[in-house]
Amino acid sequence: MAAKVLIVTGDAAESLEVLYPYQRLREEGYEVHIAAPTRKKLQFVVHDFEPGFDTYTEKPGYTWPADLAFAEVDATQYAALVIPGGRAPEYLRGDAELRKILKSFFDADKPVAQICHGPLLTAAIGELAGRRVTAYPALELDMQAAGATFQDSEAVVDGTLVSSRAWPDHPAWMREFLTVLRAKAPVT
């Protein structure tokens, strides 16, 4: 049986940051499930960079069904966790069910991949203190406030935690995450 990987997300997640790891991990042979606050069709967004803008822009992205509601997740059934970015982590960090899920992955030292604004979730459960991470560069102060050492690079590996800045860094992020994941939970 293939090892399972859980992606936790919600509406307004960055399309590429959900669907790239979803497809890449399936290609690798992992079974991948997407969990959200409720089982429903999620509306993702596309964050892009436009000339003359001081920050990214947001456009409607793909829709995709959530396989599970957070309340239905049994974290013990999953070998690893992926936390995409976008705006979703801003409101998801307040979800008590999700915080329990996140905490269980860290307590069991399972591989966790986070990208862009995803580290707002790990900060919300106190798991960034003393760690080296990267995130969307505008979150540098948030990462420092959570006790992390921020590094502005494509991918940062700290034990079983692999973080990345944003979707342009996908190749480095997934390469590093798959190295950790294959060591901890190889496909059988």
TrEMBL record:
Q: Which UniProt keywords apply?
A: Glutamine amidotransferase, Transferase
State whether keyword Transferase applies.
yes
Q: What Pfam families does this protein's entry cite? A: DJ-1_PfpI (PF01965)
Q: Name one GO molecular function term.
A: transferase activity
Report domain DJ-1/PfpI positions.
3-178
* Protein family: Belongs to the peptidase C56 family.
Any idea what this protein is called?
Glutamine amidotransferase
Species in which this protein is naturally found: Streptomyces scopuliridis RB72
